[in-house]
Predict the 3D structure of the following.
Amino acid sequence: MKKAGYAYPSLLARIGGEWKLYLLAFLFILIADSIGQIKIPVWKGTFIIFPIFYALFLGVLTGPNTLKLLDNQKVKAASGLVGVAILPFVAKLGINAGANLSVVISAGPALLLQEFGNLGTILLAMPVALLLGLKREAVGATHSINRETNLALMQDMFGADSPEAQGSLSVYIVGGMVGTIYFGFMASMAAATGVFHPYALGMASGVGAGILMSSAVAALSEVLPAYADEISALASASETISGIDGIYMAIFIGIPLCNWLYRKLEPTLGRITKAGRRDAKQAAHK
Amino acid sequence: MRIKEWIFVLAIAGLGMMTANFIGFDVAFLDSLPGVLVLLGIALCAAGLSAVIPLKLPTVAYCSILGLLCACPISPISGFVIEAAGKINFTAPLTMVGAFAGMSISNQLKSFLKQGWKLILITILVMTGTFFGSLCIAQVVLQLTNTI
């Protein structure tokens, strides 16, 4: 993923362009970590709100749609900073994996096979998307968890204006807004059922999206403190594998399966509801 | 990014981490320092490797593998690395990530509000499907291989 040229002519130009972002980030750290964690018991589990959520929320408020502290150029710069700021965290997870290497190795077969869990996404979400009246958008929306690489892939394969890329973009946007909170909550609920082993929960957290994984691992470590090290070790291993094979999973398995399911299900499931029939007519007119 | 820029931005991330570790967990800056330097060092090497090696792997993959190598039992510095990194609380590096991540999607707030309930529901199902898909496979394979 090398880009031609540099984003800034020099380090000073970078500081000049980004100092506001750094300052806001420190301000948000002061606020968010002063509030600390808030735990709300839900059913047998706990809904935990971490400082990362307040920081995320405050960050969203700074943008051109609301407080207008940042313009679109700075928003773009911030997305580059996410990629850098997450590296120390990833290094920490890697260290946890190294320190618990025997656990990671003993879980090797499970680690590799659970990569196919992505198929659960398609089987669960595609039929519902069709029932709700989505057409080709459904392929983009449900082919994977739709983080940055997947979005780029859909735009590359189908074109940026295609319904497939639009579907992918929608899930990307909604996922960015609600995913961090939902993913951690879902993980702690899954733990509360008592059905799943902490190792399996750790592996399932590494889905190829750093911020989602961190939210799930933070929540799981809080509800299963005795397994915190193993959970983060396995999440890290799973995340690393997903980061490497995720795009191939999408190209060779996810998208073909979506296309096949779409051909099979759209003529039936996609026409049951009024919205589905109406949208089918619109799609045919295009 | 040039090396100078990497060092600068990582140093900012390090400061953010120490601040969060101090405010949230009462760990003094000096106690956090060795751990922060270890994490930043690994991150910087990962950035370097990703620039030098022509494979199209994400930088995070190098970073995670380097961290694993530094801390695995055959590494001569594993004891120091594990202890130093242990001083950094798990969520301390994340607050700054959240702040930047929030800023980076802040221009999508309008399109988010326009998406409507259908896409919110589908997104929730997409996340649930991925998580539980992996979870069920992992659970079954762990049981079949007698790991748990």
Q: What stands out?
A: Residues 110-148 of chain B form one domain.
